[in-house]
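Query structure, 373 tokens:
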């Protein structure tokens, strides 16, 4: 009898940050991995995420701890090469609308109570802690969180895929909407619409907002609260902004190439979803978001949209991550969360560990899909 253990074969459905991160961590642990994407890599939510690395505000203790661990992994990556323009830690700043001073103060007090680095600032204090912001756009007060950062997820995916290929991972692009194969009640592979069959010992479904639909035929219900959202990238503009801005009318983060990424939610009613699954929005609404962002910046630079992407933002129905093995379908795991950017590295690490060892990590205890059964 051979003493050499067989290599675990894992099929990963989804070419976003959660799928790619888990695939790379699995390869590091010695697994054989095949990664299948419906279209291209980072073609869905990963390609249109504000990707603000944070655990600001109030959430469950377990979720906060997981996000803090997520930020830690990014800091470890950042330390290996701080010059990467696609991963930076310049802090985050937020403020509420006029008349909500007490709301901002309550958030600051809560963040301090859980040990989250939080500074309550008057408008005139902002320039001393972070550059490029028009203090006149802040109505009353603001919170600055020095430990926060941002990542350009498409660049991170490209970075991780270099390791994926160097470790022998297999990639199937444009596979269409893949489905999980079940044999005797257990996941045993993946099938594509074209009839491709990919056998595996374990399957991970990490398809963003489509994850609940992929596992529904397996008799698994995961509530889906995913809204439609948009990310706008501007044309290059001279600006000194380092922090991620979250304000009543625009969210802004720096982006490689001296551009800015813009996001919010007030424009959702202007988005039209078409029968073929595509989305559209009037260009004047996109420019309005750019104009709102311009008002936040010192010297009010003219911001011009260069491109924008629209689609569903992955959010589970109860707002908490859904990570782990399906109780009804052994061998099938899911990764579905709103905080895909912040959790991208840590979720991939912990999932890979569970898949390879069979041991459930305690940090994922409250996030298992079985809570919806």
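Result returned for the query:
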């Amino acid at each position: 009898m051979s003493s050499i253990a067989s290599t675990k074969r894992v099929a990963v459905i989804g070419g976003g940050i959660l799928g790619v991160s888990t695939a790379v961590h699995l390869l590091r642990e010695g697994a054989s991995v095949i990664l299948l994407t419906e279209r291209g890599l980072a073609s869905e939510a990963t390609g249109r995420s504000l990707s603000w690395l944070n655990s600001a505000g109030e959430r469950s203790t377990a979720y906060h701890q997981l996000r803090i661990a997520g930020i830690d992994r990014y800091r470890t990556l950042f330390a290996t090469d701080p010059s990467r323009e696609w991963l930076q830690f310049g802090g985050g700043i937020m403020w509420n609308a006029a008349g909500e001073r007490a709301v901002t103060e309550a958030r600051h007090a809560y963040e301090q109570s859980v040990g989250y680095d939080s500074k309550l600032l008057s408008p005139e204090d902002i320039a001393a802690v972070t550059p490029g912001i028009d203090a006149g756009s802040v109505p009353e007060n603001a919170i600055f969180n020095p430990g926060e950062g941002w990542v350009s997820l498409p660049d991170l995916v490209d970075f991780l895929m270099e390791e994926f290929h160097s470790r022998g991972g297999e990639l199937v692009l444009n596979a269409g909407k893949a489905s999980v194969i079940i044999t005797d009640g257990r996941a045993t592979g993946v099938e594509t619409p074209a009839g491709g069959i990919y056998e595996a010992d374990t399957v991970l479904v990490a398809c963003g907002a489509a994850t609940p639909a992929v596992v529904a035929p397996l008799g698994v219900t995961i509530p889906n609260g995913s809204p439609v959202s948009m990310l706008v990238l501007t044309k290059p503009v001279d600006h000194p902004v380092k922090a991620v801005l979250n304000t009543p009318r625009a969210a802004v983060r720096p982006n490689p190439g001296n551009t800015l990424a813009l996001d919010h939610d007030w424009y959702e009613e202007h988005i039209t979803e078409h029968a073929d699954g595509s989305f559209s929005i009037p260009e004047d609404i996109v420019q309005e978001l750019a104009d709102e962002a311009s008002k936040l910046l010192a010297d009010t630079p003219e911001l011009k949209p260069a491109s924008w992407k629209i689609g569903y933002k992955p959010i589970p129905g109860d707002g908490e991550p859904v990570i782990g093995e399906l109780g009804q379908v052994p061998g099938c795991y899911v990764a579905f969360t709103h905080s895909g950017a912040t959790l991208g590295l840590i979720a991939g690490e912990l999932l890979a560990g569970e898949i390879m060892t069979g041991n459930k990590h305690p940090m994922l205890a409250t996030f298992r899909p079985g809570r919806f059964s």
